[in-house]
Fold:
Amino acid sequence: MTFMKSLLGATATLALTAGAAFAEPAMIYDMGGKFDKSFNEAAYNGTQRWADETGGTFREFEITSEAQREQALRRFAEEGNNPIVMTGFAFASALETVAADFPDTKFAIIDMVVDQPNVRSVVFNEHEGSYLVGMMAAMASESDTVGFIGGMDIPLIRKFACGYVQGVKAVNPDATVIQNMTGTTPAAWNDPVKGSELTKAQIAQGADIVYAAAGGTGVGVLQTAADENILSIGVDSNQNYLHPGQVLTSMMKRVDNAVYEAMSMGEDLETGFNVMGVGNGGISFAVDEYNADLMTDAMLAAGYKAALDIATGALVVHDYMSDNSCPVE
Amino acid sequence: MDFLQLILTLDSTVRLSVVLLFACLAGLFSEKSGVVDIGLEGKMLISAFVAAAVAYETGSAWIGVLAGCAASLIFAMIHGVASIIYRGDQIISGVALNFLASGLTIVLGHAIYKKGGQTPTLTGNARFTEITLPFADAVRDVPVLGPIYSELISGQTALVYLAFAVVPAVWFLLYRTRFGLRLRAVGENPSSVDTAGISVVGMRFKALFFTGILCGIAGAYLSTAQAAFFGREMSAGRGYIALAALIFANWRPLQAMGASLLFGLLEAISNLYPKIDVFGVVTIPVQFTQALPYILTVVILAGFIGKASPPRSVGVPYVKEN
Structure:
């Protein structure tokens, strides 16, 4: 029995030291899931790129319920994974407690600010990217009516909407922007049927371009837009390929770059506040073979010029989250 | 609101009601026979997944619907075994099936298609497309009736027409056949049915058979007609709204159609008009319109308008006296 105990002890120590010697980074995806074609998939792409380039290995977990957030964080931290990267604002409260309990582990959270000494908070200037695609939507629209479909009604999504409206109005002050939110609960991220119905409702009101910032719901928006022969705008990842020739462009939030960077820094992860915007390659719009015929030279020129102005500070896009209000509607 | 807008609202109402209608009728069979079915949601979800997967593999939406019905039927039978044969708690069995469907669809979807629980997009015959009825284009310009025919009645998917055809059939089955009489009796007073020499267990299983089939069509409608793929958790609480509609309809088939249409209309209004101005005095926020189905159901249950009269033995497992 004593022998058994010491054997177990030895194995445990070995396991622990092994864990410490090869600290694998860990990646935790939010509810939308690793292959949501959008936000989480971008994080996955960044992780995979890091693994391919360095030959390193990583651990990953897709949460399927709220209770798993803290559980997953704790488990990875206990098992010596470092750094631990997670996507989504909803991790904030779980991370707040876990980060304090594991001061030697580094964490990175995308889309939210958690003020702890061992946490890297990465936020994106989504309003800047939304402004750029808003400009393009206004230029491509023939009915002068464009739509916006958000996921869950939270300040972050209103930030997308507000940036978009500002972009539309910058090109065409008389244009109408129809805005809809899918819902007020997390189910709003995974309701493609409602997304599709909202798209039809917006088309009925004259919209000929819809911008979806709605996670899995957006897949339904893009599908219906393609079925009804209007253009759509994708979000987070490059979604142009989903319906070639029918997605005007995608507002790309380079979550992959953010995750890749965090993974590359490994255990020496630089903590603190980190903003990714148009200026430092964190936000851009997608141009590829699938939308080459849709984007006119005028649109590209206007887009690149505005991007440059935003980067240099000549153009300031209002951030909804700075004062919880939007100057235009 | 001009006339065309009204038509568009109603068009949207019809599309949104159909899933509620199928699920509501499914719940009607089960509850009329005395079995509470909180598991409509789970059955819809598993059917939506199986229908989309099979439709994708076979390229036929109808085969997808059949497969979805089969999956939903299996779930209904599990519910039957747990709550009719073994007299387990009907609510717990239903909730368990909801969880099972939620997990199973993601795990299977991920294992088969590696897209995070989503199935590939359905194209061509693998999905239901809108059917244009004859003369729809010819009569479009006829005032009033033209748009009603060409926009509202024509241009729906096959399952929409099926839904409205099923309503009178269900009514006939429940109120004009011997089977329907027995089914209703088994939910009101099972011991009298037993005395008459009819198997209570058998009747309840027959009721669950219809529940399974109808719920299967509801789920398949979501993934092969309204959307063209299955996405995780895509039923998004519609099974519960259907239950609310069932209570609202006071467990009667024709009223179930009315309740589904009303709830669909409220959803269509909240989609089309997020903010409603009432004579410029008050603005009704979208949340109110969205909550209205639940508020109405609670009002009905509380007995303010009419009286909720559920089948008397609903939720009570039948124990044969010796």
